[in-house]
Amino acid sequence: MTTIPPLLRGVLAAAVLAAAGCATTDSAQARDEHDYPTLDRVRYVFACMRDNPGPPAYEMMAKCSCAIDAIAKEVPHDKFETMATAFDANTIGGERGSYIRDAKAMQVEVRAYRDLQARVKKACFIGPP
Q1: Alpha-carbon distance 100 to 32, whole Å?
Q2: What is the pLDDT along the chain (129 residues), one digit of tens a residue?
């Protein structure tokens, strides 16, 4: 077994630390924005499987996982939460739901969510061909 001279060890350690420092730049921040919490991914997959019955569970799990992965690549988590919340709130009936249905800014989020869902469902082969 060969030993690494102390000077070379120091240079290698500095290079590793410098590389680690570079990993926390803008690309790491962008990656974090698109890194959805596991619980949110699981919730999405379960809801997707519930809303799209038919194919075997394993097949649907793979398709729904594909969908949330595609969403995570396209939309930061905070934006996805805003769109999904507006979409869910849009279904509240009565006077309480009218706040969402009447707010133009919220309807923009609802439309964006529907468009996003349509794209990922098509890309991941969810629903009728």
Answers
A1: 29
A2: 455 555 434 433 444 434 444 444 445 555 577 889 999 999 999 999 999 998 899 999 999 999 999 999 999 999 999 999 999 988 888 888 887 788 888 899 999 999 999 999 999 999 887
**CA distances, 73 to each of 31, 35, 67, 116 (Å):** 9, 8, 10, 12
The angle, 0 to 180 degrees and rounded to 10, between the axes of the packed helices 94-102 and 104-123 is 80
Dist CA 79 CA 70 (whole Å):
14
The residue ranges of every structural domain in the chain are: 37-123
- List Cα–Cα distances, 66 to 18, 63, 81, 96, 97, in angstroms: 35, 5, 18, 34, 31
The rounded distance, in Å, linking the Cα atoms of 29 and 125 is 31
Residues in the chain: 129
